[in-house]
């Protein structure tokens, strides 16, 4: 599954200035997992992801945007 997400993220990245990925439930988990290894991902929009983040990194000021999480480089 990871190769499929990487392939489509690469295709999308070629067409946009900022690469934001999103997903519902398990899809949120999949794009989050991909974003950890892809520096081209500028942000995530997660709707009911099936995990509870246990790191303070995700909740630092300036990193939370509405229902999504922005990753700053």
From TrEMBL:
<dbReference type="InterPro" id="IPR029058">
    <property type="entry name" value="AB_hydrolase_fold"/>
</dbReference>
<protein>
    <recommendedName>
        <fullName>Serine aminopeptidase S33 domain-containing protein</fullName>
    </recommendedName>
</protein>
């Amino acid at each position: 599954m990871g190769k499929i997400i990487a392939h489509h993220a690469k295709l999308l990245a070629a067409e946009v200035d900022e690469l934001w990925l999103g997903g519902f439930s398990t899809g949120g988990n999949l794009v989050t997992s991909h974003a950890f290894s892809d520096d081209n991902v500028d942000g995530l929009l997660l709707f009911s992801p099936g995990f509870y983040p246990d790191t303070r990194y995700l909740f630092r000021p300036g990193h939370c945007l509405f229902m999504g999480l922005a990753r700053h480089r």
